[in-house]
Amino acid sequence: xxxxxxxxxxxxxxxxxxxxxxxxxxxxxxxxxxxxxxxxxxxxxxxxxxxxxxxxxxxxxxxxxxxxxxxxxxxxxxxxxxxxxxxxxxxxxxxxxxxxxxxxxxxxxxxxxxxxxxxxxxxxxxxxxxxxxxxxxxxxxxxxxxxxxxxxxxxxxxxxxxxxxxxxxxxxxxxxxxxxxxxxxxxxxxxxxxxxxxxxxxxxxxxxxxxxxxxxxxxxxxxxxxxxxxxxxxxxxxxxxxxxxxxxxxxxxxxxxxxxxxxxxxxxxxxxxxxxxxxxxxxxxxxxxxxxxxxxxxxxxxxxxxxxxxxxxxxxxxxxxxxxxxxxxxxxxxxxxxxxxxxxx
Length: 345
Description:
- The chain is of the alpha+beta class.
- The chain folds into three domains: 2-7 and 93-216, no CATH class; 10-69, MutS, DNA mismatch repair protein, domain I (3-Layer(aba) Sandwich); 235-344, no CATH class.
- 34% of the residues lie in helices and 22% in strands.
- It contains twelve helices and twelve strands.
- It has helices at residues 10-16, 38-42, 51-57, 68-82, 112-125, 138-146, 159-164, 175-183, 189-193, 197-204, 207-216, 245-265, and strands at 2-6, 25-29, 32-36, 62-65, 89-92, 97-101, 131-135, 235-238, 270-277, 285-295, 324-333, 336-344.
- Strand 11 (324-333) and strand 12 form a beta hairpin.
- It is flat and about 65 Å long.
- The relative contact order is 0.13.
- Mean pLDDT is 82; it is low at 304-329 and 331-345.
């Protein structure tokens, strides 16, 4: 059984999951709007719109360039967190999908429903929105999630029926092939499957049929599994200046959830870690956070003072607007199960 976690708003949420912004917000790619938040959509902004047109609809629109490197880092972070549920985790980077093979984990987590609920809670706590789907093959699970069909197919016999309603674009074939399929009236995978295979192969090549067969379980679909790093590393962007401790701790909490999942996957714990806060006009501040005993349970940080006398989220100057970031690293340290660093600027 495979579960696909699709992060449809990842380009937007890498900037907004740490804190919200009162202005409408959009991501720009090649001078066009790639995605936008609800405030921007309410003002008439939509994906594909030219940036100049979007600014005409929403003059106060905040625009950030798409950051593919940060999206990749975020996907790796989600994969590291998800490894607490199964060691068999794979990533489809172009489609922002994390795949989990959970056949051996269902009993441990009391069945599929409880496992899916735990995944949803954790993803939400990290600040992401997600579409989850499941199927006996990784390709079918990924296709269902990418199409927004939050279905869970329990046996291979039901895969075909579940996929038939999906748009033919799900195949992810070239634009020329898609245009040719649409020209002959093929709009769904079911309509494609109804065509004679020999004719499809002759006109469109064998690749679309092979992809269908992999999704249906007729052909093998091997995946390269994610290997968690030896040290924990995470990043978090801030869309605007942060001047209050409570707002900073809200962002830190997102990373603590991710760290807890990483530690659970390794059956480890942490007793001491460091927050590194980089400021707009001053040197970075490092804050040491210590726990009574090694732990991997996520906790809600609160304003406090550490052994070194520094505020738990002290900020000598506001973080740079649109440029705030947290990073983290953890590894074995004397007297602690692990140690992490987090940096923010």
